[in-house]
Amino acid sequence: MISIIQQQEIKSFLQKRNLSPVISNEIYDHFIVQISELMKNNLSFQEAFLKTKLDWQSELEMVKADLFSFKKIAKIEKTVLQSRFRNIILSSTVFTMFGFAVLFFLNDYFYLMQIGLLVTLVCLLLYNFIFKKMKFREYYELSFHPLILRNLILGSVLFFGVGYFTQSMNFWEVGINKIFLIYAIAVQIQLLYFRTKKVNVLL
Predict the structure, then answer these.
(1) Are 185 and 5 in contact (CB under 8 A)?
(2) pLDDT in tens, 65-95
(3) In the list 43, 60, 74, 176, which could disulfide-bond 48, CB 3.0-4.6 Å?
(4) How many C-beta atoms surround the C-beta of residue 30 within 10 A?
(5) Which pTM was predicted?
(6) 8 A C-beta contact, residue 201 and residue 194
(7) C-alpha dihedral, 99 to 182 to 66 to 74, nearest 10°
(8) Which H or E element spans position 85?
(9) Residue 171: partners with Cβ closer than 8 Å, 6 or more residues away
(10) How far is CA 9 from CA 25, 31, 76, 194, in A?
(11) Neighbour count for residue 12 (Cβ, 10 Å)
(12) CA-to-CA distance for 174 and 148, rounded, in angstroms?
């Protein structure tokens, strides 16, 4: 039987790993079950706790969150976040392909699509601030999110690349740049939506 003090020791250990509440609770449950099973085999709590920590050492190793982040998080947290980011990129890409089709076949409606995305972005921001779903500090951190930083770098390369090959630096007259803008806004909307739902997307 694990005592309340011992449970607190487990929680304190996991808190140092900068885990999100959901993942921390899941791992805590695993720790409790695993330690309890080991203690049934005549191991003391400390021995069982040490063995469990060693078993989870790889998943709880502190690693750099991202190429564009200075923060260190547990490897298991990074795996979950990277999977979430891949889903954001995939859905943004699918939506961008839809935007490309609108631009190519229904050009007159493309501007309405852009306006709709911008309105959605502004509404999400207002909702987060008015209902205190997000603090200004979190919005500041979100503004330098690795996905957004990658988009800025990609956009810069795209802008100068298109400008070099077309001999024109007018960003707004080139269709491919408009498509990229759709992609970038779609990513930002999803990041804001996840923050609204209190789902961790910050590195």
Answers:
(1) no
(2) 777 777 788 999 889 888 988 899 899 989 9
(3) 43
(4) 14
(5) 0.77
(6) yes
(7) -70
(8) helix 75-105
(9) 159, 177
(10) 14, 11, 20, 31
(11) 9
(12) 21
- The 8-class DSSP code of residue 133 comes to S
Mention every residue, 6+ apart, whose C-beta is less than 8 A from residue 9: 49
Q: Which two tokens stand for residue 120?
A: 């959605």
The amino acid at 163: G
Tokens 């996840």 map to which residue?
A: 194
More confident residue, 162 or 78: 78
Strand partners, 73: 63
Banded pLDDT at 202 (limits 50, 70, 90): low
pLDDT at site 118: 93
Please name the amino acid found at residue 188: Q
Q: Mean per-residue pLDDT for 31-48?
A: 94
Nearest CA to 117 out of 162, 201, 171, 183 is that of 183
The answer to whether the CB of 71 falls within 8 A of the CB of 200 is no
Over residues 184-203, mean pLDDT: 82
